[in-house]
Amino acid sequence: MPRGDKSKYTDKQERTADHIAESYEQKGVSEQEAERRAWATVNKHDGGGKKSRASRGAHTGHPAAHRGGRKGGEAAAARPAATPSASARKAAATRKRNAH
Q1: Whole-structure pTM over 0.85, yes or no?
Q2: Confidence of residue 86 (pLDDT cuts 50, 70, 90)
Q3: How far is CA 1 from CA 5, 36, 86, in A?
């Protein structure tokens, strides 16, 4: 298969690449560079073309786009425990008031 051949990519991968390329073009990136970046992103997410392979549909790792929950709570954990947020103080007061 020659370099640049996209025949092994699924329709969904092609739509994804088109969408990513459009986004880059809106940001002022040239059409050629936008397309290059888009396919690089699809390859990074999915590990290349998925059509006609024995392992089609297999797990492809943890692409950056699917790692949202991993960073959650980092800011809250960095704050000192002695200074609860305003919402936490309000919640504690509500619980205290409704405890009887």
Answers
A1: no
A2: confident
A3: 7, 18, 60
